[in-house]
Amino acid sequence: MKSARAISASEATALVKSGDWVEYSTALCQPDMFDQALAGRKSELRNVNIRGCLSVRPRAVLEADPQRETFNWFNWHFSGYDRKKADLGQVNYIPCNLGEISDYYRRFLAPSDIAVIKTCPMDANGFFNFSAANLWHGAMLERAKIVIVEVCEGLPYLHGVNNGVHISKVDYIIQGDNRPAPELPNPAATDVDRAVAQLIATEIEDGACLQVGIGGMPNAVCSMLMHSGVRNLGVHTEMLTDGIIDLYKAGIITGAAKQFDAGKIVCSFGLGSQAMYSAIDRNPDILCNAVETTNAPHIIMQNDNMVGINNTTQMDLQGQAASEADGHRHISGTGGQLQFMRGVYASKGGKAFMCLASTYERKGVRKSRIVLDMPPGTIVTTPRSDMMYVVTEYGIVNLKGKSIPERARAMISIAHPDFREDLERGARESGLIPKGFL
């Protein structure tokens, strides 16, 4: 049995050698003290490979090494900060379905040299809780040669299946800085967000089980549900948000109608405000489970009347959604979108919604988010065969069972009116809408 030893952050980073693979974990679990100390060793090391995801604070190793002379950062899903660093050539994306990453560690990735994870202080049972970021951390630590925890009293403690690591599996313990958990600001809803949310809210019935993605539109749906009269909602989601917790506080989310984990709000990680963190801390109604148990379609489908609410940045007339890239520029990640689209559809009575604003503005020019063809290099996150409901501020359409010409017509009908004529012309010229099709 291992005997965990308390060490300083500087002593911990002395274990890192050139060429090592170091795990930085995800979101609230990314280390801060270790990160700062490792950045201080930039001139001593070369080719240190770091895997991380959803950085919610600036990473010292990236700030100290803009030319990438020492640290190579590999990322499972971009935050806004990660995207900026990727634009500068400092970060590489790893294509993945988020719910499969535990399996990648167990089957396809060589054991990491060092894994460092920020946790809550050890509990009475000898476990260091992963807080609101269970995800694939258990599998990551199983495969690491050296396991280091950086304890922080500022993190909320969440119940969940295997949401923590036992001291017997830990090699070293760093005392963290105990800062409050970093917040993710909830973007203010726009008029477009509210219009889209209103359309989706009318499709949600009593007892439905929600999956809510990140962003203003999905959170706007939660706000609309607050006043819709719907009751006894459940939650089985990847990400826990302020919008979900607001519904829970209002008594609208009870989980009473759930078939799987009845009465519980189930998530794999959470990001939000301090008010949200306070509400979920040691809350027995919240389960933060490993991502392979939240995102697997065969588990998602076990709750009837699942409702998946995700957003995207661009769709074509056949119903493909590009949610992670704009041409060759990567902006986020596949995340759990595709797995939830499939799991929600397989649920008895399930409804999967893909929402987007009809337009965006770039350099003072307004452009349509619904396009004839994706720009070269653009990655399709959700293929046309998986698309169900599509929603813009101009309407809602269901693409299931529709032919290509019918899909094109449906997508054009919810595009911004200023772009419909050009889209119709392009669809006819390309053959998506053949001659004689009315």
What would you note in describing this structure?
The protein is α/β, with parallel strands linked by helices and 438 residues long. The chain has 2 domains: 171 residues, 3-Layer(aba) Sandwich (Glutaconate Coenzyme A-transferase); 240 residues, Acetyl-CoA hydrolase/transferase C-terminal domain (Glutaconate Coenzyme A-transferase), CATH 3.40.1080. The chain contains 15 helices and 27 strands. An 8-stranded parallel sheet has the order 1-10-8-6-2-3-4-5. Strands 16-14-12-11-17-22-26-27 form an 8-stranded mixed sheet, sandwiched between helices. Strands 19-18-25 form a 3-stranded mixed sheet, with helices on one face. Helix 2 links the parallel strand 2 and strand 3. Helix 5 packs parallel to helix 6, helix 7 crosses helix 8 and helix 8 packs parallel to helix 9. The longest helix is centred in the C-terminal third of the chain and has 14 residues. It is globular. The model has no long low-confidence stretch (mean pLDDT 96).
Total number of strands: 27
Give the class from helix and strand content and strand pairing. Answer: alpha/beta
Helix fraction? 25-40%
Level-1 CATH class name of the largest domain:
Alpha Beta
Mean pLDDT, nearest integer? 96
Shape: globular
Judging by the overall fold, what is the CATH architecture of the largest domain? Answer: 3-Layer(aba) Sandwich
Radius of gyration: 22 Å
- CATH fold group of the largest domain: Glutaconate Coenzyme A-transferase
DSSP strand (E) fraction? 15-25%
| Tally of discrete structural domains | 2
DSSP summary: helix tally: 15
Q: Tell me the distance between the termini.
A: 73 Å
What is the CATH homology-level superfamily of the largest domain?
Acetyl-CoA hydrolase/transferase C-terminal domain
Low-pLDDT runs: none
Q: Biggest sheet: strands, sense, closure? A: 8 strands, parallel
Q: Tell me the strand order in the biggest sheet.
A: 1-10-8-6-2-3-4-5
